[in-house]
User: What shape does this take?
Amino acid sequence: MGSAKFLDGLEPSPSMVKARVKSRKRPPTKAASPKSASAVGTPAPAIILVKPQLGENIGFAARAMANFGLTDLRLVAPRDGWPNAKAHASAAGAAFLVQRARVYPNVEAAIGELNFVLATTARPRDMVKTVLSAESAASDLIKREQRGEWTGVLFGPERSGLDNDTIALADAIITAPVSPDFASLSLPQAVLLISYEWLKAANAAPQLGRVTKFDGPALEGIAFPDTRPATRAELFALFEHLETELDRASFLHPADKRPSMVRSIRNMFHRMGASEQDVRTWRGIVAALTRGHRARPNKVS
Assistant: This one.
């Protein structure tokens, strides 16, 4: 906890912080303001603390967020329950973020409305997943926010970090460059690092192409002119549909291999950056294939 004292001297007044609070109203799928992700109405990333253990660390994380203009704090099953007096006290001038923090029973519920999710981890994982530096991740978040996407960053428990099943729910991994002699960031430090890089990228986001009254600037990445990025909840429904049918077809066998097979399949979909239309198409494909299989008469040998 003491390592979070490096925040002292950076803390803005409550009035300064509240002046930078962004509207969390769902923006239209059309490209948002061409100015930057700091423009009013553009969704900033949610900071999601998964099973945080110490109330003090939640408060220090809130202070880190407030210094760099992030205001959406989400907690998944905090160990010591909620509300937490130590979190409120540690947040100091950012106590309003602790007061408005939303608590969820599991990660799926916390990220269900989001279109793009990043997971922080310091360790290599045995899964095929895009790996980003904090700087690259922040730049990607800004581009997505400019398109009106809702984004979030997952942070794991202080003792163990995020487990593989939780990381499999994210689109990509964030790993910070640290000294090989001592690679151990505290939870508040990790939140501060990502928050700092986000604000830095927000103030330097370039515009592409010509802006007219009929359309916004071009943005790097996948364009969604007639649809929108899929939410986590839509992907989770697809996963449940697909995995149910794969179980029925005895594809996810042997049983001891099932968890890793499921993670690999989910990671394939996360890497494709699926749209809402993509998800509906894939669900239609699964339904059509299973209907055809069941309707086909058994061959007599």
Notes: The first strand starts at residue 46 and ends at 50. Residues 75 and 103 are 5 Å apart (CA to CA). Residues 2-202 form a domain with the Alpha/beta knot fold (CATH 3.40.1280.10). Strands lie at 46-50, 73-76, 102-104, 116-120, 130-132, 151-155, 172-174.
